[in-house]
Amino acid sequence: MSAAGGTALTLDALKRFLPMHLRLRDDGTVLSVGPTLAKLAPDLQAGLPGRLVNARPGRSTCPLAAIQEAVDGQGRLILRILNTRDIILRGHGVRDGAGAMLLNLGFGISLHRAIRAAELTDDDFVPSDLAMELMFLREANRGVLHVLSRFNDQLAEARQEAVLQAQTDALTGLRNRRGLDLELAQALRLNGHRQEDAAVPVALIHLDLDHFKQVNDLLGHLAGDELLYRVAAVLKQQVRKADTAARVGGDEFVLLMRGMTSRSALQDLSKRIIRAIRLLTPPELTECQVSASLGIVIWMPGETDSASDLLDRADKALYQAKAAGRSQAVIL
C-alpha cells in the first residue's frame, strides 16, 4: 500500500507508526486495524456495523457514510465504539495509493477513559504522539496523588497520636484528667440530649490510695511511681473495654463505668480492687499496708448533666469511705 503521496508503507510499519489507524474500502471491507484500536474494538476487523457509529449530532449514525464524507471532504471524523459508550474517537482520513480509505484516529478528552477501559500503556502509543505526553502527565498526577494520600494518612495518624498523648497519663498509660473530662462530658451529653442516643446510666468511682505517702517518704519516689504503675495495671484488668480508667493526680484514680447500676456488682468490684491493691504493698513497708478507699456515685439519665457535680458527689463518697476507716467503698 502507499500513502496519498505515493510513499509505500508496509502493514507492519503502518501498525507501528499509526497504532490507531483504520484502513477500509468504500464497500466497508476492513483491510487493517491498528493494534491499539483493536484493543478497544477487538472484532472491528470483521466490519463496521454493530461496532462503530457516527457520533456527530444530527447526522446519520452510519459509520461508513461518515467516513466517506470525512475522507473525501477532508473534514473531521467523530466516531463512537458501541461497546464503550463514553469513548469518542476523533480523527481525519485520506485515500492511499490503492484508493482505500486510511483513517488516523485519536481519543481527545476521552483518553483517560480509553486507558482505563482497555488497560492501555505507553507501548500502545507512538512515542511522538501527544497521548504519550498526556499519559506521562496522568502517571505523574497519580504518583503525586498517591504521595499526598500517604502524607494525609500519616498526618491524620500523627494528629490522632498527639491527641491521644495529650489525654494520656505518661506514668500509668491511663487517661489523664483532660481525657477523663472529655469521656465524662461525652457520656453525660449523649444521654438524653439526642433522641437517637439511648440513655445509658453511668457509675463513677473515685479511688484514692491509703498510706501511699508512707511509700514515697520511706522508700522514695521511684518506689511510689512503681506502685502507681502497678495499681494502674490492676484497674485496667478490672474495667471493661467500654469503661474508662484515669489517673487524675497523685494517687487518685477515677473509673467511669458505662451502664453499671448494680450496687452489689459495684461493691464486688470494689472488694476485688482493694484486695488486689493490698497485694501490691512493698515488703519493705512494715508499719502499714497499702490499700484503697473508693467513693461511688450512680448517675441515671435525666439527672444533672454537670460533670463537676458528679465528680463532687463521688469525692464526698470517697471522703465518707476515708472517714469510716479506709480500705472500703461507699456508694451514694
Commentary on this structure:
This protein has 332 residues and is an alpha+beta fold. It has two domains: 11-126, Haem NO binding associated domain (Beta-Lactamase), CATH 3.30.450.260; 177-331, Alpha-Beta Plaits (2-Layer Sandwich), CATH 3.30.70.270. It has ten helices and eleven strands. The protein has a six-stranded antiparallel sheet with strand order 2-1-6-5-4-3. Strands 8-9-7-10-11 form a five-stranded mixed sheet, with helices on both faces. The longest helix has 37 residues, at 130-166. The N and C termini lie far apart (100 Å).
Task: List descriptors.
5-stranded mixed beta sheet, Beta-Lactamase, 2 domains, rod-shaped, 6-stranded antiparallel beta sheet, Alpha-Beta Plaits, alpha+beta, 332 residues, diguanylate cyclase activity
Radius of gyration: 39 Å
- Write down how many β-strands occur, each being a DSSP E stretch of 2 or more residues: 11
Corresponding CATH superfamily of the largest domain: Reverse transcriptase/Diguanylate cyclase domain
Strand order, sheet with most strands? 2-1-6-5-4-3
CATH architecture of the largest domain: 2-Layer Sandwich
Number of helices: 10
* Coarse morphology: rod-shaped
Mean pLDDT score: 87
CATH topology of the largest domain: Alpha-Beta Plaits
Which structural class matches the secondary elements?
Answer: alpha+beta
Percent helix: 40-55%
The ordered string of helix (H) and strand (E) elements is: HEEHEHEEEHHHEHHEEHEHE
Q: Distance between the terminal alpha carbons, to the nearest Å?
A: 100 Å
Highest CATH level, the class of the largest domain = Alpha Beta
User: Which blocks of ≥5 consecutive residues have pLDDT under 50?
Assistant: 191-196
Indicate how many domains the architecture comprises: 2
Strand content: 15-25%
**Which sheet architecture does the biggest sheet show?**
6 strands, antiparallel
